[in-house]
Amino acid sequence: MATYTRRGNSYRIRSSVGYTPEGKQVMKSRTWTPAPGMTERQIEKELTRQMVLFDEECRGAALTDGHIKFQTFAQQWMEEYVETSLGKRTRANYKQMAARIYEAIGHLYMDKITPRQLQKFINSLSAAGANQLHPEKGLSPKSIKNHLSFISAVFVCAVKMGMLQYNPCRAVTLPPLESGKEKVCYTPEEAQAFLDALADAPVKWQVFFSLALFGGFRREELCGFEFSDFDFEEHTVSVRRASLYTPGEGTFTAPTKTAKSRRTLKLPAWIFDLVKHLRSEQARQRLALGDQWHEWGRLFTREDGSPMSLQQPYRWLKAFCEEQGLPFYGIHQFRHLNASLLIYNGEDIRTVSAALGHSQTSTTLNIYAHTFETAQARASESLADKLPVKFGQKRA
Exposed, middle or buried, 160 (CB in 10 Å: 0-12/13-18/19+)? Predict the structure, then answer.
């Protein structure tokens, strides 16, 4: 849409004719001077008409906007939007995905990229060798979806700018997400054995994994907890932040994953006794280190008081499970166990979703669809046991 700037008795009208192959916006301008004797109302009406005419003229002279290499435009999009508008975690994830995406389609011109080319790239991410940590495997369906989301976001920006008419990502088929599949976690008996063994562990790990199991918190939420988040009278704990890590930033504090991740949960009183014990232990350590202590207020710290690495709980848990002869399913399994126990206890979808801090109940249902189905089947069986019928037996 054209704009104008008054310059004395004349007006400079400007409008875009598109973008260069390097992604730079090209503007054209024209000067219009009102005829002598025109009233303010006449000037306003004619100026509007001149702007509309100039817009139409510029659209007719528009450049081939989309003829720009994907990597060139994506890097500008990263600089102008991602770096200024998104959080550190998202920026780090985009940068990590960018190298793989640029290698595959970065050299292609955006107006020439087809759904078929994108589909070929997406399919390749499922093949063995695509996963750098596990070369024998491909990427997970969720990771593949994230790659396509990156590409699509770049095309959405180009379409919004008028550089392209169509986003080819809309025609790409993703591998199905692993919804409806039972999540691997402890059975109630294994969970009890774990808690029994945990009683002899350092108090820091007693607190960490008790919160993980009974609160269902994410790892970054656990590592972000501060003593001020705990209400020792009401026995509630509030999730207010996350502790994250990127290679470029190191460990840093960030907002919670979503707005609904900021939540307050009521937990057993004995957990708060453990937290008090941890606070006393940390106070003694702070006195012992003196000026070498770095105060963050965090529950879980390094020896000098600085925030604990996100990998430390994983390494400790793996060694602990091997030592105790317990199965090791990772830290996230405690979140799944918490959700499963809530569901089997008869809690409704909204309650479970709120406890887990999911942004939508559909997220909870997608992840725990199988668990809800199993709980419903158990409830039906229990009802049938309590209310036996005889009319079916007569017919048999």
Answer: exposed
Taking the C-alpha atoms of residue 240 and residue 259, their distance in angstroms, rounded to an integer, is 10
The tokens 């780090």 sit on which residue? 92
State the first-to-last Cα distance of the chain, in angstroms, to the nearest integer: 78
- Write the DSSP string, 196-235: HHHTTS-HHHHHHHHHHHHH---HHHHHH-BGGGEETTTT
pLDDT tens for each residue of 237-266: 999 999 988 777 788 898 888 889 999 999
140-159 as b/e, with b when 16 or more CB fall inside 10 Å? ebeebbebbebbbbbbbbbe
Angle of helix 332-344 relative to helix 369-386, nearest 10 degrees, comes to 30
| 173 burial via Cβ count (<10 Å: 0-12, 13-18, 19+) | exposed
Q: From residue 334, how far is each of 124, 344, 387 by CA, in Å?
A: 33, 15, 35
Give the whole-angstrom CA distance, residue 379 versus residue 385: 10
Whole-angstrom distance, CA of residue 262 vs CA of residue 60: 51
| Residue 142 in tokens | 């969720």
C-alpha distances (whole Å) from 278 to each of 74, 143, 215, 236 are 48, 37, 18, 17
Tokens standing for 1?
Answer: 């849409």
Residue among 173, 82, 159, 56 at smallest CA distance from 120 = 173
Give the separation between CA 22 and CA 20, rounded to whole angstroms.
5
Please give the structure tokens belonging to residue 64.
Answer: 């081939």
Structure tokens at 21: 């192959």
- CA dist 327 and 209 (Å) reads 15
User: For residues 107 and 101, what is the distance between their CA atoms, to the nearest angstrom?
Assistant: 10
Residue with tokens 């008081």: 305
DSSP 22: T
pLDDT tens digits, 41-94: 999 999 999 888 888 777 655 544 678 899 999 999 998 888 888 877 788 888
| Predicted TM-score of the model (pTM) | 0.68
The domains located in the chain, with CATH, are 3-60 (no CATH), 70-171 (1.10.150.130), 188-377 (1.10.443.10)
- C-alpha 277/C-alpha 236 separation (Å) is 17
